[in-house]
Predict the structure.
Amino acid sequence: MKQISRRNFLQRSVAATAGSYLALSGPSRLVTRARGANNQIRVAVAGINSQGNGHVGRFQGLPGVQVVALCEPDKEILGKRLAEFKAKYEVGDDAIKGYADIRDVLDRKDIDAIVIATPNHWHSLMTVWACQAGKHVYVEKPVSHSIWEGRKMVEAARKYNRIVQTGTQQRSCPAVIEAAADIQSGKYGKVKWVHCSKLGARGTIGKVTTPQPVPGHIDYNLWAGPAPMSPVMRQSFHYDWHWQWNWGDGEMANWGVHYLDDLHHLLGWNDVPNKMIAAGNRFAWDDNGETPNMHFSLMYYDDLPIVVDIRNLPDPKRRGGNSGAVYLGARHGNYIQCEHASVRLARGGGGAYDNDGQRIHQYKGDGGGAHARNFIDAIRSGRRQDLAAEIEGGHQSTVICHQANIAWRAGAETSVEEVRAAMKSHEDALNTLNDMLEQMDGNDVDLKKEPFILGPMLTYDRKQEKFVGANAEKANKFVTCSYREPFVIRDEV
């Protein structure tokens, strides 16, 4: 098959017109099965600073899997990881190669799958390119940096018939799988409302007032890829991009996506909420971060109310202390109130409780330790149906994060009274607001100087995957993001 090379890619990009191009004369329309139980599946890992480095060990440790390439635009990190790999696995230069540019990796015909753990803004484009090049994909959460590009990932997976797994590993957790079966069977009665939360504590990322130099060992063009090569306005180049909109999607899509994906799984959704409103702000920190550190959204999946509650401040004067807040008896996870019981589930397990608060069943889990193996097994079977977290579901769970972010970004500064009035339709939303106010008081937040931002109630059209009705124009500005040539996702993948 014709592979993506830098020369071919640039030629196609120059020739592209009207936002679309002819895709590669490409991979077989049948899923390429791995070379058999006795042959290795050869894997490349892109983005190896933190989570990706963990994936190197996870995949290398699976029977019949060989990590053969590492991709990273930071030369220092790449050199360090290559040296660590060679020492740990006692292999030479021929066994593992390093690359700065993912296109050079995709040119290799001997690589079966790409594991993507880059910053968020690269996830979608890299997945599309990999599918076009005939590779299977394991892509970290959040799968996309915008709603539109997430759909393009699904389209590419279908068009080239690739196995594409989402890195929401709790899909492979026995506790979530068992609880999902119980809830969907009606064991606890009808679901009445849900509270989904991640109440952690982070520190400020600090503040710089002038652009910071990009370290010489980082190829900023390749690091930025489809995103703007904007001046770097943060003290730490790596990781803190999470809290700046050009590259990251805040805590909502960093940690919140895990529990929103659990919720999608637990309730057996085949789509996303269709109404939402959000409030919050970046309180207490005068830093270069742009995403909210106190953020909650009241959403409706048809008639079912869901509160999504994401906080990054500590709770110094109440339960939780410097570890973050405690609400509904937990710091994180899903609280699903049914007619006859509630299910409370976080990473690793949880339980069902009767309406008097007595535990009636324990759900034991492992956080999804078999998730990487599930991806490899699906490559071997050639069946995307065998995936625990196939890209369609991963896209939908990530859309919920984008909906909550957009509902906030479309807002304006307002008073607490107006936030309270906007949330009055649901008791848990009001309780969440009051709990947040107590926590912010413990952080000496002056709401006259740092007011809430409240977004308008939005209506989302599931079929069109965009907002409709009142305030749609304001919200739809965020449904896609800009791209920088030649790192562009085209309309036709």
